[in-house]
Amino acid sequence: MKNKRLVMIPGPTPVTRSIQDQMGREVAAFGDPAFVQDYKELISDLKTLWRTEGEVFVVAGTGTMAMEMAIANTLKKGDNLLIVSHGFFGDRFIDLAERKGITVDVLSSEWGQIVPVAEIESKLKEKTYQAVTVSHVDTSTGVCAPVEEIGKMMEQFQDTLLIVDGVCATAGEKEYVDDMNIDVLLTGTQKAFGVPPGLAILWAGPKAMERRKSLGTIPEYYVDFDKWLPIMHDPSKYFATPAINMVWALKESVNIIKEEGTEARYARHQRTGKAMQAALEGLGFSILADKNHRASTLSNVIYPEGIDDAKFRGLLYEEGIIVAGGLAAYAGKMFRLGHMGNVDMHDLVATLATIERALYRSGQPVELGKGVGIFMKEMLQ
Ligand SMILES: *Cc1c(COP(=O)(O)O)cnc(C)c1O
Q: Is 126 buried (19+), middle (13-18) or exposed (0-12) by CB count in 10 A?
């Protein structure tokens, strides 16, 4: 008999029944007062939970569109942008910004390491930048950037906005927009919110909204804050058709988050991340990210000697566990495992047990139950 499929890639992540049910509802008119109310409550909850006095935008599109939206509304041609890159997604901002005629400087870390905060600070002292981008968790490396520390350091650079790509972090790693001095935070629904792909979420603090105002008319149309702001304040107005069922699905995800509590949710992710990483190391894998800067939302898992990546992931797939391959130099050497959002104990235990079986079937010496045992012990602490 075939096993159920568990999507354990770093996004999309497993979607709970109650969220699926919202996707399956009969569509409503976007002007339906009940839908308008739902949309309004969603925006208000997102503002409250991520603590900003600024604005929230929920717009159909992916995380990449949210990256574009952040840049388009805060920078203009000729501005200087400092990109702090911890991997593939950090680098994505380079092409994105250069196409808009923005002057880009890049501080890159070796994969698995971070750019030290002091290095960002001295770069900011050298030259005036209108903004800095940083990926909170770079999905290609599993590195978690010290966003809170970066935000604190940037208090001395009041004219420089901090743009945080939270696509693999938001709703899993701790983020409070105004408290952490973040000016723009962006994400997509398919990662730690545990909703199918389709919506971009963007928080813009007061300073970012001021910056948007100072830019006047921008070249972009669909992602312009000015086009969407009236709708975010009053969703009965029309600009472009909202993704009705996605809005409901995200609202259900936010209800789950409210019930769990943000602090409890962040703590759960930390505990789960540590326990999964300890279990994987116990099985002979190593984790790409430096121990001091590991994400709790996913693990980038390097194979021990003698494992064929395609074969190993094929064995997992056969048994119903889907993981992602490594990117760039780590293609074939590593797999990427998501453990964020609404994944539960059953999913995690089943995943580890299946990884053990795949090791066994790959001819590796493995003590069956060892990874699961380490995980359970860590979770009981
Ligand atoms: C997944 C991801 C993106 C891209 O999001 P899409 O929804 O695939 O466009 C951007 N940044 C990070 C850190 C990601 O993990």
A: exposed
